[in-house]
Design a protein that fits this description.
The chain has 180 residues and is of the alpha+beta class. It contains 6 helices and 6 strands; from the N terminus they run αβααβαββββαα.
């Protein structure tokens, strides 16, 4: 579950953008229940600002990250940490899931075990990924990341282990799973 959370955080650490077309306003009911909350909403304007900052800062990985940003329209991140179990329920996610239906969205990954659950949805247009939504739920935490725009997963993977992006290599992920 921790490596999925790292991938989720990738959206907020590297791709910096804004409100995806997925409407996350239904999660507002959880704000008063949460002990801690993170709300990141960056639009195309902020994305362009981040692109200019990265492309003028240096070469190499910063330039690769800037190239990724150019293709994105928005990213939204919502993270809630609760003081006790049961403060968020599966029904709280229904407004989000209702938007993530076929034929536009496809569920790529779905895992669950005990109180942990992860779902990853993608939206494709003309054979390219143009949207990514990750829902990660644990007994006391809930994270939703919604990215809108052309997403090159191979390019993101090439930045793995740099710029604050967790090491997303297969070996690293497999070793994390063994240490649990």
């Amino acid at each position: 579950m921790k490596h999925i959370l790292q991938i989720t955080l990738l959206g907020s650490l590297v791709l910096f953008p804004a409100m995806a077309q997925i409407n996350l306003s239904g999660l507002a009911v959880l704000e008063s229940k949460a002990k801690e909350m993170v709300n990141v909403t960056l639009d195309g304007t902020m994305l362009q600002l981040a692109t200019r900052f990265l492309s003028t800062k240096s070469k190499g990985n910063d330039t690769k990250a800037a190239d990724l940003l150019k293709e994105l329209k928005s990213i939204s991140v919502r993270f809630f940490e609760f003081s006790r179990e049961g403060q968020h329920k599966p029904e709280d996610l229904q407004p989000i899931r209702a938007q993530l239906r076929e034929p536009v969205w496809k569920k790529m990954i779905s895992t669950s075990g005990g109180s942990e659950m992860v779902e990853i949805y993608t939206k494709t247009e003309q054979g390219k990924i143009t949207g990514l939504t990750v829902i990660s739920s644990e007994s006391r935490e809930l994270t939703i990341v919604a990215i809108e725009g052309a997403i090159d997963l191979a390019a993101i993977a090439s930045l793995s282990g740099t710029l604050g992006i967790p090491d997303l290599s297969l070996d690293q992920l497999l070793n994390k799973g063994k240490s649990k």
